[in-house]
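Worked example 2:
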Amino acid sequence: MNSQLNLRTAVLLLAGAETAYPALLHPSAGSALLVGIAVVALLHSLLDHT
């Protein structure tokens, strides 16, 4: 269970970083912080049900 928690944390952080970085480079696409938080929150809720 602990290794799954670590993998889950890594996936959430990586997904947030991968979505926030392009949004940071192109500010007209949206706020980088909000995009990253939204993706991490969505993945967290999806992974929580499994």
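The CA atoms of residues 4 and 36 lie 22 Å apart. Helices lie at 2-25, 32-48.
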